[in-house]
Amino acid sequence: MVLKVELEKELEHKFREAAMSKFGHSKGSIKKASQEALSSWIMQQSTKLPKVEDPFKLVEGILSHVKGKKTSVQLQHEATKLWAKKYL
């Protein structure tokens, strides 16, 4: 899978330096460092977020006051804000 990410120039330079310092200047060092960084970030985030069996039950009924007044995209944004207030 390909994941394209745009970084600030200074951050990219530091990341490349660190990746090559750890994994060498060979092909694949950026890929290995990226996988390690993303895995580490995911692990860090997973300790902060509650496990959710059924995500629909989290928002069930919580948006009834806006039914028919907003688009589906607006409802998604509203649900995200409400969920963040409750769990973050």
Helix content: 55-70%
SS-based structural class?
mainly alpha
- Strand tally: 0
If you compute it from the alpha carbons, what radius of gyration comes out, rounded to the nearest whole angstrom?
A: 20 Å
Tell me the overall shape: elongated
Major β-sheet profile: none
Q: Count of helices?
A: 4
Strand content: under 5%
Number of domains: 2
Average predicted local confidence, pLDDT = 84
Topology:
Blueprint: H1 9-23, H2 29-46, H3 55-59, H4 72-87
Write a structural description:
This protein has 88 residues and is an all-alpha fold. It folds into two domains: 9-46, no CATH class; 55-87. Helix content is 61%, strand content 0%. It has four helices and no strands. Helix 1 (9-23) packs across helix 2 (29-46). It is elongated and about 55 Å long. The relative contact order is 0.07.
Attribute tags:
88 residues, mainly alpha, 4 helices, 61% helix, 0% strand, elongated
Brief description of this entry?
This protein has 88 residues and is an all-alpha fold.
